[in-house]
Automatic annotation (TrEMBL):
It comes from the Bacteria. Residues 5-86 form the Carrier domain. Coiled coil: none annotated. Pfam families: PP-binding (PF00550). PROSITE patterns: CARRIER. This is Acyl carrier protein.
Amino acid sequence: MITTEVTFDELAALMKQAAGITVDPKELRESAGSPFDVFGLDSLGLLGIVGELENRYGQSLPPDSERCRTPREFLNLINSTLTAGA
């Protein structure tokens, strides 16, 4: 059962790992309603993050995952999906 949520810290680490973009987790948290492109993340980078999360949790994520526009929207969708599938 998945009891933890994907955090802004983890998302920032995934952005670095999957897309080579360094973002301060605090800045990501404070600007969670800003579009991903403000942080330099494009749809291909977000797709890489989705793939990494699917591998990590052994669960498919919704097709809408890579269409999320903001970090807040993305984390809300991912976390609700992971906890629902737990």
